[in-house]
Amino acid sequence: MTAKLHEFSDAAALADALADKVATQLATAIEERGAASIAVSGGSTPKRFFEVLSASDIDWCKVTVTLVDERFVPADNSRSNHLLVATHLLKDKAAAAAFIPLYYDAPSIAEAADVATRKTAGIGHPFDVVILGMGTDGHTASFFPHGNNLARALDLSGPRGVLTMEAEGAGEERLTFSFSSLSDARFLALHIEGQGKKDVLDKAKAGTDETEMPIRAALNRARSPLEIYWAP
Ligand SMILES: O=C1O[C@H](COP(=O)(O)O)[C@@H](O)[C@H](O)[C@H]1O
């Protein structure tokens, strides 16, 4: 599948356009199937997009929100993606949405991943919307360069669900949806901002080694076309 680049003059214009597109996708899903699902990324980039989306006038009580990935930390930890989404997305009109976290207070991260897989299985598939981010190391979701579970996570013939990931650049241990869970979303987007990330994207496009830059899997072999939203 090919990737399409949508460029915007600034981050505010990008947030407005992406929120508008996502709201339309969710509204269409509700109209056609009675419910909608969205998996979003954490990090610093999505805050403005979340704020705009939270005010969208759609039937949020029919929307289920989850995360593409999470750190193995509870929701009151400042690095939790759940906390980010609770603070910037699950408010205003979007406060009516259901949220399914990936972190669970289990004896091990492997058991937490199993619980997350079970809890999220009811969302149905494919996701209506998946919004990926990208780190400057070329990771997306928690598909980190040289991650201990990367081959399994990126295997498109592998099962849907949540996996564990450890990598030098990841900080905490991670929970991540598998690539097979994310790559066939009805709307699959990559949201990145800044010239630095554009340079990383261009480097990723110029090579093929997914172990070095896992974002290449999303660029080159996602089941759905990847829509890249970028602003300087
Ligand atoms: O670790 C993470 O980082 C990426 C990118 O974050 P950003 O701060 O550079 O926007 C994010 O997509 C991912 O969900 C998150 O866990």
TrEMBL record:
EC class: hydrolase
Alphabetical list of Gene3D superfamilies matching this protein: 3.40.50.1360
Job description of the protein: Hydrolysis of 6-phosphogluconolactone to 6-phosphogluconate.
NCBIfam families in the record: pgl
Annotated Pfam families: Glucosamine_iso
Organism of derivation: Rhizobium puerariae
Name of protein: 6-phosphogluconolactonase
Alphabetical list of InterPro entries matching this protein: 6-phosphogluconolactonase_DevB (IPR005900), 6PGL (IPR039104), Glc/Gal-6P_isomerase (IPR006148), NagB/RpiA_transferase-like (IPR037171)
MF GO annotations: 6-phosphogluconolactonase activity
Keywords: Hydrolase
Family: Belongs to the glucosamine/galactosamine-6-phosphate isomerase family. 6-phosphogluconolactonase subfamily.
Lineage: Bacteria, Pseudomonadati, Pseudomonadota, Alphaproteobacteria, Hyphomicrobiales
This enzyme's EC code(s): 3.1.1.31
UniProt pathway: Carbohydrate degradation; pentose phosphate pathway; D-ribulose 5-phosphate from D-glucose 6-phosphate (oxidative stage): step 2/3
Gene: pgl
Taxonomy, superkingdom: Bacteria
Domain Glucosamine/galactosamine-6-phosphate isomerase, first and last residues per copy: 10-220
UniProt catalytic activity: 6-phospho-D-glucono-1,5-lactone + H2O = 6-phospho-D-gluconate + H(+)
